[in-house]
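Sequence decides. Our protein:
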Amino acid sequence: MRIFGNYRFLGICLIAVGAVGLGGQSAEAQSSRVHRGFDSTLEATATGEELTAQTDLWVMEVSFKPMRMIWVDLTDAKTGKKSRELVWYLVYKAVNRTLHQRQDTSDTVPVNDNDPAPKQFFVPEFTLVTQDGGVQKIYADRILPEAQAVIIERERRDLKNSVQVVRAIPTPTPAGAESKNTIYGVVTWRNIDDETDFFTIYMTGFSSGKRLQRGPDGKPLALRRTIMQEYWRPGDELAQREGEIRRESPTKWMYRPDEAKDAPANSSAKKPADDKSITDAKTAAN
């Protein structure tokens, strides 16, 4: 982590004491300065090319709260012992919006009323990727029931984790109209490197958008419509504060390889040894 002057070192003890004090606070105390509103919304949009290429395309409007942190007593699954940990989390809400599709009046579109479209499901996945010191680390979404309970108390809303939130795609709601099928969720991460300055969150499952193109090796490459949000955190590792986390750029849609290689060829990528893919949890829940 960068140190902006020797004067910061002189206050190291006071900072450490402040961090410990925050760690002992309740969810209510930790929420005293929380801005409870959703402050960023990514609209449900699609190009004419996308709508033509994929007639069953659906896209959700997704709103986010600021990236947050909370101290929680988490139980070690192996030892049964509890330890105080700093959990990073992101609260979101999603609404399936109606996409304006141009009607094809020609007689070239195949129609088969005997074959209804297969049912589609909302199955979100989140990956947090840090970029510091030439080293890239990849963190998958974690299911943390103890942290989820504390977060719900703090946010004062029932929030589903990434397994509980899985469901059939809700009926589309016209743009601007209030939806009765709004999905509220929370994604959690643990053991994030406390020296992290820059990180990106990739989110899939909020659209059925997909593309197929040739990769650098000439083989077919599947791309998924993905939400990308970049952040930076100018603080330090001794007193981690959620208020220091800032969006580096607007949230945006992009197409990304389905089995994305997060690390460039000339960099090193590390996945924390104790990190467990959310896919395993979802498989176990089914």
User: Anything to note?
Assistant: The mean pLDDT is 80. Residues 8-101+118-285 form one domain.
